[in-house]
């Protein structure tokens, strides 16, 4: 019995010894595996910093004295400052700050905006009424500024001695056998002197001299100048009245200079007026005026609008709804563009996950999207937001400066 007990004890002791030898032999492998699984334990921290204040460095972790956030470690293997034009950022920071990337795509730049506008007279329908000869005002009809007058409305009655003399010559020649040329010459002289065509034809049919003539409105419109009085002398260069038409009218709006290139034959306009919110107005044509306002850097777009019902009054406020689109081009979000004043750049993401700044040339832009002329290719990934973090890291690693130097050396 005792010998059997000694045998069991010997077997147990031998198992313990063998197990110890196995553990001792395997120990280096376990430690190596642990190191392989946890590479971050070996990463060297250069310093800690606040992404909002990247120029200030701290020698230990903790809370930022500037913002209510933890300091971020700057590792020695980040940035690859000696060999790369890009920078690397801790993926945790990228995720925490919600950094978003998008791909460069082709499309048409869409522009839609409602612009304040105003209604004005149509200057193509503007006439100045003159007697074109010296005379006397016999009667002024009861009219004043702002009155609407239909075509043919009497304005004043006048006496023109020159017209009376020419009528006498006409009747004398036509009754005494004057040549056709002579008779026609007198009638043309009356037309050039301003005698109304209606009175000339009456002279030919009635063959009697007229001494009093009525000057009438030549178009439908509104009187904008009229200051004659009965009994006044009137000279040949005196303005009897100014009349401006009401149909159609002009509606003008200021368009940003940067948007001028988006206006084309496919542009669509719609006019609304606060006084008539449920009424639509037909636009006959539109024109982009050639000059730019030096103060506001805007151009004037002018629309000719049908106004047969005369709801639109000059001086009214209106709103112009503009919709247009560009030709096909490369598009990126406008917020992705970094504009330094001298140049425009974006931050791209290369195949290795580095953030690389690239110079671009902007073709056209709206508040939402920007069209790119060159500098990018379709399908490239760019940073759409979180650019301040990229800027912080770039300031630390000098990636932007190195890129500019590399471009300079390449040129």
From TrEMBL:
Coiled coil: none annotated. Keywords: Ion transport, Membrane, Plasmid, Signal, Transmembrane, Transmembrane helix, Transport. Residues 47-74 form the Heavy metal binding domain. Residues 248-325 form the CusB-like beta-barrel domain. Residues 127-244 form the CusB-like barrel-sandwich hybrid domain. Pfam families: 3HB_CusB, Beta-barrel_RND_2, BSH_CusB, HMBD. The keyword Transmembrane helix applies. InterPro entries: 3HB_CusB, Beta-barrel_RND_2, BSH_CusB, HMBD, MFP_Cation_Efflux, RND_pump_MFP. GO terms for biological process: copper ion export; plasma membrane copper ion transport. GO terms for cellular component: membrane; outer membrane-bounded periplasmic space. Residues 162-211 form the CusB-like three alpha-helical bundle domain. GO terms for molecular function: transition metal ion binding; transmembrane transporter activity. The chain crosses the membrane at residues 7-30. Belongs to the membrane fusion protein (MFP) (TC 8.A.1) family. PANTHER family: CATION EFFLUX SYSTEM PROTEIN CUSB. This is Efflux RND transporter periplasmic adaptor subunit.
